[in-house]
Amino acid sequence: MKKIAQILLAVVIVAFIYVIYKQISTPIRFENEMKAKRAQVIDRIKDIRTAQRAYKSKYQKFTADFDTLANFILNETLEMERKLVDEDDSVGMAMLKRSGKKNIEKFTVAVIDTIFSPKKLTAEDVYNLRFIPGTNNQAQFIMEAGVITTESKVVIPVVECRAPYKMFLDTITYRQEIINQIDDDVNNFNRYPGIKFGSMEAGNNEAGNWED
Length: 212
Fold this sequence. Notes:
By secondary structure, the chain is of the alpha+beta class. 50% of the residues lie in helices and 17% in strands. The chain has helices at residues 2-59, 66-75, 90-99, 111-114, 123-127, 165-168, 175-188; strands at residues 77-82, 105-110, 142-149, 155-164, 194-198.
């Protein structure tokens, strides 16, 4: 009887230690996983923002369609400018002046060859921009685009791209931690519970909420 009691006590102690371990380790593991996954999502959403800014530079608007954005990156060009002569080169500038030419030369370059430099994206990378990292290409970024009228009656193009926590974090293993994180972001910090750039409500130069 005494031996049975000792065994039961040992089981209770082991179970108690396990509960304490989980209470301590789970928030730490969640924090580490969130940092790693946030970094992956931010890296990709930055590329989406870069592409959107280049698209706007050519068309004076943003796009809400990933197929349109991918086609732009892979098949279109941007017009660039460069100086023919360094302005500190007095001889070169004098010769340029005599020729009657302007010190600006326009040229075109493939979008994919310039906007992500020094990073190199393949065609597959471009098509996969729409997918949130870590989701096995099952979840896509939510992307919107349009125009708004400012208080000074100026019409400006706007864009917003976002990935809520629930779409890239483990909602089964870390259910309560994610609930707490969302509540903290929304109610204590008044910020989007996830990763996003831009806004459909105001022009904010496509600012990312990770840059706060």
